[in-house]
Design brief:
7-stranded mixed sheet; 39% helix; 3-stranded antiparallel sheet; 12 strands; Aspartate Aminotransferase, domain 2; Aspartate Aminotransferase, domain 1
Length: 364
């Protein structure tokens, strides 16, 4: 049997031709392709909000936080059950990441836990739309307004997700989308920052370009976090394909939902559109044995995102001494992400179902 990978970036002839076009033009740094990509991404995903392209999703989070005024002495509330870039970005501003627990259905910040963690030092709340499902934005947005703090969004995995008809990335003061190769669309590497107003957008543009809008007129101390025209050209092509890929992910997920047995399939909240960056199930008993059996006995790949919560990582644990997050700990022990990507065939999906049901039925 051929191995079914858990993820598979799709780069085709259209993307190659776009790169060749840029190389022939001689304009390969931040130029017209980046500007066009920003406009097109904004119109496609976030209802025309100001959008700034950067060289990675992590840069996007970092610069978004800095532009929002986050810095030493501030606290930003974040989940521990996510990739470390979320907490890292807060720490890099000099602020303190405050880790709180998640709710068990969609792995997003638990609004009650967030409310309990707010202090006079809290500057903002930074939920993650994990696996492509929107966070509890209704409650978190209302809580931010009531308590006078900002709402930010880590939408790294959620291109096209929405809640109540409003897209993720259009709720907070800023949001970040990742364009890493395994995301639902890619630019090869890169990120997009979407912002609530032009003032914040200008701040991010300054910060990504050594603090200058005009050459040699540096206004602030900044970074080199620019996206190249080569990467933007890839992203522009992918924008024309991502909706069809999302439909494929949703159709694949529906097939798995209907046919898997013996595992907990991912629920979708009322009013939510899930874009299935990952199709994440729960395996309450012997998750690691389950993963091993899928690969060795059935040649079905899977991923565990994330086995070590951020508050227990050596890099971030100093911000959370003695912290107990029980729902997060259970999720870290139980989650498995199955293949759901658009390259799957019907035969692949049927083999995934047979494999999961066989391993689950055998108790791994």
């Amino acid at each position: 049997m051929d191995f079914i990978p858990p993820a598979k970036p799709i780069i085709g002839d259209d993307e190659r031709e776009a790169v060749d076009r840029v190389l022939r033009s001689g304009m390969v740094a931040q130029g017209p392709e980046v500007a066009a990509f920003e406009r097109e991404f904004s119109d496609h995903f976030v209802q025309g909000r100001p959008t700034v392209a950067v060289n990675s999703g992590t840069s996007g989070l970092h610069l978004g936080l800095l532009a929002a005024g986050v810095g030493p002495g501030d606290e930003v509330i974040v989940p521990s059950f996510t990739f470390a870039a979320t907490g890292n970005s807060v720490a890099l501003t000099g602020a303190t990441p405050v880790f709180v627990d998640i709710e068990p259905e969609t792995f997003s910040l638990d609004p009650a836990a967030v409310e309990a963690a707010i202090t006079p030092r809290t500057r903002g709340i930074l939920p993650v739309h994990l696996y492509g499902h929107p966070a509890r934005l209704r409650e978190l947005s209302a809580l931010a307004d009531t308590r006078g703090v900002a709402l930010y969004e880590d939408a790294a995995q959620a291109h096209g997700a929405s809640l109540d008809g409003r897209p993720v990335g259009a709720w907070g003061a800023f949001a970040m989308f990742s364009l890493y190769p395994t995301k639902n669309m890619t630019s090869g590497e890169g990120g997009m920052v979407t912002l609530a107003d032009d003032t914040l957008a200008r701040s991010v543009r300054l910060l990504r370009n050594q603090g200058m809008e005009k050459q040699y007129e540096n206004e602030v101390v900044g970074f080199n976090a620019r996206m190249t025209d080569i990467h933007a050209a890839i992203g522009r092509v992918q924008l024309t394909k991502v909706d069809a890929w999302t439909r494929s992910r949703q159709e694949n997920a529906a097939f798995l939902d209907a046919n898997l047995r013996g595992v907990v399939v991912p629920p979708v909240a009322e009013g939510a559109v899930h874009v299935y960056h990952q199709y994440t199930i729960r395996v309450p008993e012997d998750r690691d044995g389950f993963v091993k059996a899928l690969k060795e006995e059935h040649q079905v790949g899977s991923g565990v995102y994330y086995p070590i919560p951020n508050h227990r990582l050596p890099s971030l644990a100093p911000y959370a001494p003695g912290l107990d997050l029980p729902v997060t700990e259970v999720a870290a022990r139980e989650v498995v992400s199955l293949p759901v990507h658009p390259s799957l065939t019907q035969a692949d999906l049927e083999r995934i179902v047979r494999a999961v049901n066989a391993v689950a039925g055998a108790g791994a």
